[in-house]
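Our example copied in:
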Amino acid sequence: MQDWEISVWGVRGSAPVPSKEFMEYGGNTSCFSVKRENHVIIFDMGTGLTRLGRELIKQKIMRFDVLLSHLHIDHLLGLFSFQPLFCPGIEMHIYGRIGLEEDIRKLLSPPWYPLGLEDFSAKIHFHEIEPEKSFPLGEFLVSTIKGNHPNGSILYRLDSDGKGFVYALDCECDRETFLQLSEFAYGSDLMVWDSYFIEKDFKKGWGHSTWKQGIEIAQEANIGRVLIAHYHSEYTDIFLREQENIACKDKICIFSKEGMTLRI
């Protein structure tokens, strides 16, 4: 059975924090990847995408897929410094909400950026999808549901080889969402979970959750491990270390750090 390699490239929500107080866990915004053999699937394109781009070039990965949760800017900032876009022969497939191509074309154009999509050497393909749909992606089956987030978000599940991986960032976990997610993620091996808030800071309607809710879903849905991510941009390393010491008394909980690699 083929191992999947899950890599952490960006762990922050809302804004990058390139300061020494944030370097242990990481200061880049959301970006994760799943690699099975030479097939790489990227989740979101936050500033962590910059480092991932260099690694893709180093490993001579010429084709890869991107699954976008939504189009808020912290999940797209890495596009502006993604070196594979300038490499002839690269083929990049981006999946996301309806209107995806038009919105990204607007973003990557003057006056916000000096180049347009037609100026890149890589071939970029857009695939617009709706939540609640499933589709094959190489050896994977991709399933989706709608996230509870302002302007909407898409949560993803990958299945293959009898394994399951769930990506659930930018989602507020009310009772209805808890039940839907528990069914959607049931029996998966690893779930990346939105923990923008701790409980006392939680703000209803902001579209984010807590590490405690992630653990509760994992326990309810028989999930192997829950990978905590999308930390508030004001939560320093010292603060997150304190939270990790509390949360990770439950052995299924892992606090993500940039550069971390897990296997399922």
Observations:
- The two ends are 10 Å apart (CA to CA).
- Residues 237-247 form the longest helix (11 residues).
